[in-house]
Specification:
alpha/beta, Rossmann fold, six-stranded parallel β-sheet, 14 helices, about 40% helix, disordered C terminus
């Protein structure tokens, strides 16, 4: 049964405003470019490049390695990242980021004010190249226009009317993983991407030390993370909480170890309910909802032995620090957003209407009965979890924790920046 949502979320209203204002302005920008004739592409070493990625912390995990490729191609360029204020802590110490310009995403007027502020900031230094990594929103492309960027590259997403915003519009394929889509975008901007990792995030030393102190009293390994939320876009991506609890109880019964619950903001009630459900199964879990900023979350995921999550940012953050993942999909397709690599399992039971969240429809769905994700049984999830944990741990079947097959370091080594 598919029902219509009756009250759009704040994020949905922002998407609608982006469309209502952005589509006619994109058309105007295209007309102006046609009348004035587009300038030739900048050549030689660039002096200032802006890369924009607003929503989607998992998308940022795929874009970050490409900044290293950009630095290699233009070693003297100043690289500015345009993103949301909530992403600042993840990016401000990344060695390939020279400057940050951020937008607030709470309320209605703060984002509009920050949009004009971002244009004013970016106009201070001529922009040779602007790479817009947004898949359907037009805000970043409008900022590029307002800031006077000499060359703008972005996605031409079907049904989103964004192509007039760009000097180079790259078709966004609906059947290609977004990591490969971002790489194609950078190649269109003249950045070679051969050999660039699809996901990679450097773990900050300070964050790693904070997490090691946090885990000093963790009773036993394996460390298994349960992430029952799905961010602020479409709660239909969430696997049912009772199944998370049943899965957590099985992990504890066979492998012992320590269960951790992660989430933030509006996800906190989910963590409280999952904690209570696990307690009813006589399983204790540690909630980390108030303990971790983004850098600490990345460092913590690097220390974990397995992450079990809905289709949301921690899936890609965990993959970026080489931690095995079991992830649940339904409204989204793992073909586009699944964790890449052999050490992960994406569980997906598509229906004829799947996927209903696509870049072509602005990642919006009116479904109130997500039977796709509810079609994933606990037994199927347990099979994937057991397979991945058994690679490193002997089942314990006692409360003391599993026995590692080989030495397990306190935290996984961080990847190179």
């Amino acid at each position: 049964m598919i029902a219509r949502a009756t009250s759009p979320s704040a994020l949905e209203w922002k998407k609608r405003l982006d469309s209502i204002v952005g589509v006619p302005l994109a058309t105007l920008r295209g007309a102006c470019a046609w009348i004035t004739r587009r300038r030739p592409a900048p050549s030689g070493d660039l002096r200032h490049v802006v890369v924009a990625k607003l929503w989607g912390i998992g998308n940022l995990a795929m874009v970050l390695p490409l900044l290293g490729a950009l630095r290699q191609r233009h070693p003297r360029a100043r690289i500015t990242v345009l993103t949301l204020e909530r992403n600042r802590s993840l990016l401000e110490r990344q060695p390939t980021v020279d400057a940050l310009v951020t937008l607030r995403d709470h309320g209605l007027f703060a984002p509009i004010v920050d949009l004009f502020r971002a244009i004013a900031i970016l106009r201070r230094e001529p922009i040779d190249l602007f790479i817009d990594c947004e898949q359907f929103l037009r805000a970043a492309g409008l900022i590029a226009w307002g800031a006077g960027a000499r060359r703008v590259v972005g996605f031409d997403t079907p049904r989103q009317y964004r192509a007039p915003l760009y000097d180079v519009a790259v078709p966004l394929a609906g059947d290609r993983h977004m990591a490969h889509g971002f790489a194609a975008l950078f190649r269109a901007a003249g950045i070679p991407t051969d050999g660039v990792a699809s996901h990679e995030i450097a773990v900050e030393p300070d964050a790693e030390r904070t997490v090691e102190a946090l885990l000093a009293d963790a009773p036993a390994r394996p460390y298994v993370v349960l992430h029952p939320g799905s961010g602020d876009n479409f709660p239909g991506r969430r696997w049912p909480l009772d199944r998370f609890a049943a899965l957590g109880a099985r992990v504890h019964a066979e492998f012992g170890g320590t269960l951790f619950l992660t989430g933030a903001g509006l996800e906190r009630p989910l963590l409280a309910e999952l904690e209570a459900r696990l307690a009813s199964e006589h399983v204790t879990a540690r909630r980390l909802d108030d303990a971790l900023r983004l850098p600490e979350l990345v460092a913590f995921l690097a220390c974990a032995d397995l992450v079990v999550s809905n289709d949301t940012g921690p899936v890609h953050l965990a993959a970026a620090v080489r931690t095995p993942v079991v992830a649940f999909y339904g409204p989204n397709s793992p073909r586009l957003y699944g964790p890449l690599g052999d050490d992960h399992r994406a569980l997906y039971r598509p229906l004829p209407c799947s996927p209903c969240l696509t870049n072509q429809n602005g990642k919006s769905s009116s479904c109130t009965m997500p039977l796709c994700i509810r079609g994933i049984a606990v037994d199927e999830a347990w099979g994937a979890v057991h397979e991945l944990l058994s690679r490193r741990f002997e089942p314990a079947v006692v409360a003391g924790g599993a026995v590692a097959r080989d030495a397990v370091a306190p935290c996984a080594p961080p990847p190179h920046a």
